[in-house]
Amino acid sequence: SAAPATAAARAGYSAAAALRPPLVRRLGRPRVRATPSPLALLHTGVTLTLAGTGDDGQPPPEVVPPSVMDSAVSFLYEGTKSTAIIVGGLASVAIILLYTYQDNLLYFPDAGGQIPKSTRDNPRGFQNPGQRGLPYEDYYVDVPGENVRLHSWLLLQPEPSDKVTLIYFHGNAGNIGFRLDNVQAMYEVLGINIMIMDYRGYGDSTGSPSEAGIKRDAEACLDTLRADDRIDPGKIGVFGRSLGGSVALYLAAARPTQVLTLTLTLNLTLALALTLTPTR
């Protein structure tokens, strides 16, 4: 009769289905039979319609047990949570490393070994101004409260107290010797006194570069010049190129009554010149 045949078909189908993976057992493309809500998918199981034959021309439905579904959801959740923890941990490590080594990423005294660090190792003509016939002296600045000594060159005009004195803050990478082309042109064409200094950790200056440290370097240079009786303290200006532009801008803002002029060259194509009127 039809009933025994149907029962046998069901039994054979169930036996075959039992050999398949428990989460998704299918002979053909599954379709989700009506379920009340997404919540029911998690707590009552998922009803799948499988290809085959039965009493109504369809195979009997199989329901994925709630325990299996809960295990799958739990696995996915834990996996996602673990991934988030790992990504968050790596991001935290990256931030800590960037913060710790930010100065190494910002300042390049020798451009990674590509150029000499000390002026003594520069090519001839860039070791000191004297090699270009310019009068100069090695001028040292001690930063108050620190074991840091800055090396600079001071080029004085005849009758230096009658002239403007310019503090030259150079750009990133390299020492003051590589700025001698600019220094020579300023000295000869403008007829001014020039002090060009190497930041801490650059050239023959001691210490290690940092933003806060370079700011203190700038103020120490200004104070040293103002105390030099050969220099008119009311005629001191600052010049900054690239990185030095930020340093010069800082010094002019921090000491507005002590800086006569401010000139910035921000990059090779943009030049900004400002004159600050002291408030005395």
From TrEMBL:
Instruction: Give the AB hydrolase-1 domain ranges.
Output: 165-266
User: GO cellular-component terms in the record?
Assistant: membrane
State one molecular function term (GO). Answer: palmitoyl-(protein) hydrolase activity
Its protein name is: AB hydrolase-1 domain-containing protein
The organism's taxonomic lineage, starting at the top: Eukaryota, Sar, Stramenopiles, Ochrophyta, Pinguiophyceae
